[in-house]
Amino acid sequence: MKAMTYERFGDSSELSLTEQPLPKVGPGEVLVKVHAAGINPVDWKAMSGGLDPMIETQFPAIPGWDVAGTVAAKGIDSPGFEEGDEVIAYARKDWIHGGTFAEYVSVPLRALARKPHNLTWEQAAGLPLAGLTAYQVLTRSDLEEGSTVLIHGASGGVGSMGVQIAVAAGARVIGTASAKNHDYLRQLGAEPVEYGEGLVDRVRELAPDGVDIVADFVGGVLDVTLEVLAEGGTHASIADPEVEKQGGAWMWVVPDAEDLAELGELVERGRLTVRVDSVFPLDRLPQAFEKSQEGRTVGKIVLQVSGD
């Protein structure tokens, strides 16, 4: 099969389109023919060696953890799915090697859910990691109807899904973003505020008594979080370990088929959608990584692998 691989840690110049053997499919796994694969900043951070202290890498490594595709084969004792089923997954494994930026990937059932029928392949590929990140941060932060939620980085891939998930739960959402993205946040149901100097005052104008939940998807905003958090409120970050010293949760998204199925139900009910910023063919992964590294996308960057 064709796959994008790298033989050593480095930047996008290390990536090559190569021929690799089909993945083995073990018990409790399926082989997925990849139609599209979502790109996340963690993919190029892993390629640079940024995750090496915590996750083993086996070279040549195929990057990528998000996938949308069809079941091509089943391993032993893999109930619930059949060949031809349309599926999605946050397919992170215990080491970095056989990722989703390839024509095929093996996926454990614990990470697999059915593709929402009302998403394109490209939209579906952008849902798992970002959607699960937002969902797990918010649900573990005691999200409920009537909560006031502040989302840092609300117009990005994770933040925009967090806005929609919180709104669907009946929460009031305040979201930080640059002014050019404020109309987009209003469309999602959030009250936008511009980040930068004076952010605390702008949030306090909207929520004088503070906010119940802060979800930080950008990092570097802990001081703001603590100043606007209401007494007894909760806060979590995916980007700043220092939150743990201040009573918050530093979180890392976990593959979870049930959570992903919940997201799929929100999609099919029309409460959650995925905005695709741009689509690249498989062999243009280096350019897709470079666009991701610019940090100015609104929505998801996606690789189109197969048009079947």
Automatic annotation (TrEMBL):
<dbReference type="InterPro" id="IPR013154">
    <property type="entry name" value="ADH-like_N"/>
</dbReference>
<protein>
    <submittedName>
        <fullName>NADP-dependent oxidoreductase</fullName>
    </submittedName>
</protein>
<dbReference type="InterPro" id="IPR020843">
    <property type="entry name" value="ER"/>
</dbReference>
<dbReference type="GO" id="GO:0016491">
    <property type="term" value="F:oxidoreductase activity"/>
</dbReference>
<dbReference type="InterPro" id="IPR050700">
    <property type="entry name" value="YIM1/Zinc_Alcohol_DH_Fams"/>
</dbReference>
<dbReference type="InterPro" id="IPR036291">
    <property type="entry name" value="NAD(P)-bd_dom_sf"/>
</dbReference>
<feature type="domain" description="Enoyl reductase (ER)">
    <location>
        <begin position="10"/>
        <end position="303"/>
    </location>
</feature>
<dbReference type="Pfam" id="PF13602">
    <property type="entry name" value="ADH_zinc_N_2"/>
</dbReference>
<dbReference type="InterPro" id="IPR011032">
    <property type="entry name" value="GroES-like_sf"/>
</dbReference>
<dbReference type="Pfam" id="PF08240">
    <property type="entry name" value="ADH_N"/>
</dbReference>
